[in-house]
Amino acid sequence: MVKIAFQSPFAHKDEPKKEGAEALVADKDPEVATHSHDSSSGRCLLTLLGIAFILAGVVVGGACIYKYFMPKPKMFHGQICYGAEDHAAEPYFLPISEVADIRVGDNIAIIDVPVPKFSDSDPAAIVHDFERLLTAYLDLQLGNCYVIPLNTSIVMPPRNLIDLFSKLATGSYLPQTYLIREEMVVTEEIDNVSDLGIFIYQLCAGKETFRLQRRDKIMGLQKRSAEKCHSIRHFENEFVVETKICQQ
């Protein structure tokens, strides 16, 4: 028996259409792929820029909030009167005022000595660093910094200073005290103040800074007429100190 197979007359017509469609798709594929790649890159770039702006906003906003809400150091105001040393018939007392930023946690006392009203001493900013056992004087009239080892026999520690200024702030404690003098001599210039701690660095950065030594500790050193001396009167105890700084 012979089987006769009939082929559909549309079979050959569908094949060219199919091949043509495949060829058309194949011709368009490179452009479609390129356009799709460019769109994806653009979207990624925009996304990254958006994330960067958001992070920048978070950082700036967080810094502003921290600055606004962070606890501000308490400033202490105090005044002490010390006896004037002249030959007046009646003794009288001169006032000296200070503003103190005392930070027990950092073991630091920062003293601001304004322009005095009744003496020839210079205004100054003073840092007493009890961690590094250093004192730095910034003479605001000269613009120079001077560094010396901390004299703990004169300067009260931070907690005691807070007690002193707290009593002075009440107005009921108005001591009439005395003046002691100390004389310092410039020995050398300090080139790098970054080794002196962050607080002294903040005080003295960008200023000429010198190391001091007490004159009575320098053997055989006598005061010379060519020396230029400036005085700073201040208190970090229940008496007033006049620190005289001399330099050739």
Features:
248 residues; eleven-stranded mixed beta sheet; 32% helix; elongated
Tell me the layout of helices and strands.
Layout: H1 11-69, E1 75-83, E2 93-103, E3 108-113, E4 124-129, E5 134-139, E6 144-149, H2 158-170, E7 176-177, E8 179-189, H3 198-204, E9 209-214, E10 228-234, E11 240-247
Parallel strand pairs: 1-7, 6-9, 8-11
Antiparallel strand pairs: 1-2, 2-3, 3-4, 4-5, 5-6, 8-9, 10-11
Tell me what you see in this structure.
This protein is α+β, with helices and mostly antiparallel strands and 248 residues long. The chain is 32% helix and 31% strand. It has helices spanning 11-69, 158-170, 198-204, and strands at residues 75-83, 93-103, 108-113, 124-129, 134-139, 144-149, 176-177, 179-189, 209-214, 228-234, 240-247. It starts with 10 loop residues before the first helix and ends with a strand.
- Enumerate how many helices there are, as a single number: 3
Order of strands across the widest beta sheet? 7-1-2-3-4-5-6-9-8-11-10
Low-confidence stretches: 1-14
> What gross morphology would you assign?
elongated
| Beta-strand percentage range | 25-35%
N-to-C SSE string, H for helix and E for strand: HEEEEEEHEEHEEE
Report how far apart the termini are: 135 Å
* Helix vs. strand class: alpha+beta
Find the count of extended strands (DSSP E, 2+ residues): 11
- Main beta sheet: strand number and arrangement? 11 strands, mixed
Overall mean pLDDT stands at 80
Q: Helicity, in percent?
A: 25-40%
Backbone CA Rg:
39 Å
